[in-house]
Design goal:
alpha/beta, 5-stranded parallel β-sheet, 4-stranded mixed β-sheet, Rossmann fold, 42% helix, 193 residues, 6 helices, 9 strands
Length: 193
């Protein structure tokens, strides 16, 4: 059985990573989402399984035990991806931020990094407000997001703008399929085709 491929969906807050990742794994039984940990509180209306919500002491203990593939602090909260243990026959999908993507690239150069961009700062702000973020947090996320997208473009293997959910999911599915075909054929994947 071939080794699992590692796909990294990353981008700024409000790009729609969680929604796109959920749709991808719902449609593809051979794609396994590694659920990230965080020390932040669950947002109103956020699913209980969006993250593994833990306190700072529990998170820091997991760091000391070497239990994270990558982790970072962002706006005062810790976020991390546990060392992935996918079921047999499944490829791995990580849904993370730019800091995490940098760490994954350093640790796993073979990972496929997919930058998910919001279509505009205005749409990004609307999405952030829609999930309950206050105006100061929205302002910080937009400001940070512009820099994240600029750097992300230099790091990413592929870039998708999330201006229409169905089209975005189809584009990312196409990327996953291309890399899987390349694994089977032994040829490098055609980028962006």
């Amino acid at each position: 059985m071939p080794a699992p491929l590692l796909f990294v969906l990353f981008g700024p807050g409000g790009a729609g990573k969680g929604t796109v990742a959920a749709r991808l794994v719902e449609q593809d039984p051979h794609l396994w989402l590694s659920r990230s940990w965080t020390t932040r509180s669950r947002r109103p209306g956020e699913p209980r399984d969006a993250y593994e919500f833990v306190d700072r002491a529990t998170f820091e203990e997991r760091i000391r035990a070497g239990g994270f593939f990558e982790w970072a602090e962002f706006l005062g909260n810790l976020y991390g991806t546990p060392v992935p243990r996918p079921p047999d026959g499944a490829d791995v999908l990580l849904e993370i931020d730019l800091q995490g993507a940098r760490q994954v690239r350093a640790a796993r150069p073979d990972a496929t990094l997919i930058l998910l961009e919001p279509p505009s700062p205005a749409v990004q702000a609307e999405r952030l407000r829609g999930r309950g973020d206050d105006e100061e947090h929205v302002r910080l996320r937009i400001e940070t997001g512009l820099a994240e997208v600029a750097e992300g473009r230099t790091l990413a293997d592929e870039t998708v703008v999330n201006d229409d959910l169905d089209a975005c999911v189809a584009a990312v599915t196409g990327i996953v399929d291309r890399y899987r075909r390349a694994r089977t054929s032994g040829a490098p994947p055609d980028k962006g085709s």
